[in-house]
Amino acid sequence: MLDAEFFRRWLALTAAAVDREAARLTELDSAIGDADHGSNLQRGFAAVAAALEKEPPATPGAVLALAGRRLISTVGGASGPLYGTLLRRTGKELGDRAEVSREELAAALGAGVVAVAQLGGAQAGDKTMLDALLPAVDALGASFAEAAAAAESGAVATVPLQARKGRASYLGERSIGHQDPGATSAALLIGALAAAAGEGAAR
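The structure corresponding to this sequence follows.
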């Protein structure tokens, strides 16, 4: 079972992974976006880690709700509201339970992904973070490691796609050949989840 400490560890590992990969995320974003994805998420998840350390919430749902609020308030552009919505909705689905199972987390995260899709008006194949999150949710029913692998594969699979949503969609066919930065950061989030569970190292 997964308790609040597990979720705090997940987000701390996410913050560390984003910090390590911030330059790469910004490099990817410079090709098809505003060149600020890495720095924005770096600032946001650092704020999340600091908030969770200062006043650690007692339940998994509360951990994610606090993280979501912090991302929305500190991250500019689209990524703050999207990641904030993902975590807040997932936390809401988990409710006030002290511990949750991997299967319950998978169902809650699935609801969070649906909320992200509704907010951004995107779907699978649009070259967005959903291309990593949707396969990850499907695979999470099997294991954390499989979810991480599915997210990574989903991110890589955005390279040949033409962007249909977000800033990258303005480029039309010129967006083809570039890995989506949002899908890449989403894969970091799921990779950190697997690392928190002891099923792989956060990159």
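The chain has a mean pLDDT of 94.
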